[in-house]
Fold these 2 entries.
Entry 1:
Amino acid sequence: MPGLAALVVQACVGARALSAGGHDDFNQGQISCRRPGAGEFTIKGALTGFDEVTPADFVAAVVDPAAPVAAKAPPELPLHQAIYAARPEIGGIVHSHAPAGLVFGALDAELEPLSHEGALLAGAVHRFRDTSNTVLTIEVGAAIAKSLGEGVAVFLVNHGSVIAGRSVRHAVVFALMLERACRLQLDALASGRTYSVSNAIDVIAKRDYIFADLSVRSYWEHTNRRVRREHPDIESWT
Ligand SMILES: [Zn+2]
């Protein structure tokens, strides 16, 4: 398990990848990480966007909602606190207002195994509808954590989405996959034509092979190389 400083570098690389994957909405949205089970975590500060964040922009936070909050912590900190409290095995969380996920979340439609990503996420992304406002309280955060359940992601209807992973690398890869799955299905729906989806046997096989830990690691390694090629300033962080 990397040290916290190394995790923050991963989170920053992940943030740049999220930006490239269409997750930007000005400076909004967050990425956070911790060692699974830890009571402390670190989160992108409120002022910077996914496209520009560096390790210096991350702020320390704790899972306990009663603890003092850093001045630069994002207002939606309770969302992360509640999910980390509910899911000890989780090591990374992404919350964004990515457009395809936002539009798909507002539709009366379920994600289908249209693509590889869809095979992972089909029927597994619930919708949270209690409020579409910014998550400002631990009560709303806890309700979202309940809607997430043991899943990978939840749509915050008319707001955005939340993606959780057992590492920040998993959370980033799954966030990129969710946006792509939503975009592809929206494109298929917009065509107005009928379309095919993978059968149940293929869905099980894809979940076993394409989303095996070793595979997710290779998607992260590719993402990491790509981001570092496009953002040479990252080399000065390590
Ligand atoms: Zn938000």
Note: The chain has a mean pLDDT of 95.
Entry 2:
Amino acid sequence: MSLGCPKATVDSENILTRLAAEGYQISPSYDGADLVVVNTCGFIDAAVEESLDAIGEALAENGKVIVTGCLGAKGSIVQDTHPAVLAVTGPHATVEVMEAIHAHLPKPHDPFVDLVPPQGIRLTPSHYAYLKISEGCNHRCSFCIIPSMRGDLVSRPIGEVMREAENLVRAGVKEILVISQDTSAYGVDVRYRTGFWGGRPLRTRLAELCKALGELGVWIRLHYVYPYPHVDELLPLMAENRILPYLDVPFQHASPRILRLMKRPAATERNLDRIRAWRQVCPDLTIRSTFITGFPGETQAEFEELLQFLAEAELDRVGCFAYSPVEGATANALPDALPDEVREERRMRLMMFQEDISTQRLEAKIGREYTVLVDDVDEEGALARTPGDAPDIDGVVHITDGDHLEVGEFARVRITDCDVHDLYAELVSA
Ligand code: SF4
């Protein structure tokens, strides 16, 4: 059972891959399973509750349960709530999880790794895949407890990342989504060490990685990129279509004082200037971001400053959370906590304010042609995504005359209409 963010999904995929490599079989139901592994999320209180409920359900339905993931790293909350679990580990702990499984369910036979596809076992549809390039984070944002759960940044060797990407492409993946806690920081911990891919030296650095990934001939999409100056180097790659013109940049706020209180990376960068410069290099750039409203001490004026930033930044996609005090986060000790109603009211105001901006950005696409990647097909047509739409979090393109298309296929469409989130399109004849 896999809960939480794409980083947790990758951990689950690694565990499934090891299990299959060792000859274990994966059961889709509690009944058919000898043991259940629950990969948990511990990010906000609602996620903690969902994870604890999932563990309770697995215990009730099956009885033999091993818990891994972020909640496992949060003190003894799992053991205190569910003392019957067999073992608990933190995130990114395939080896420990496998040891616990061996202890309670001995290996069925010797490893026969050829049974496992080279790309491993994935939980995403076969035409796109997440590629985790590092684990952990060197920042200490005051609202976040991820570094205390996942530790400091550890970048994966660039050769290993590239080989995994190649295997994914060989297995038919058409879109690779690069993820980590802090994608721009890739390689900082190893001082941008030189690695090797196909006998060629490559530095462990985001721009070099993107150039190499861009040679694989599939869509490359970047998530969790902080606006450091060196991110500017990626924009020419996007303008030349070597990687998708898409940046997921979690700005979180626009007031310098609140950003300092949040201890955000790149808080002092001039983000509006940077966005303008990026769009000059790559006019088709899509920017997605997330924000927090009602952070402790946020004044009405600082909230208005955030709205003003949104008005000027004209971001394409925006997500927003009302501030939620996560147990163990240092922001909880800040003075002037705002009432829940104010945090929520500001969140709704921000989302309504942004809705018009996002819609205008979509309207500007009407009449233009795009290459889209098909995600789903039924008798009513096809659902696809443009380079500006990440799976699950952004919008989709409805292709009304696309019922003969195939999932994982690229198609050329002309945008005919839009609503608040999605685009509507017709196929462009070849
Ligand atoms: S950058 Fe900040 S929010 Fe993101 S994982 Fe690191 S500490 Fe948490």
Note: Residues 378 and 403 are 6 Å apart (CA to CA).
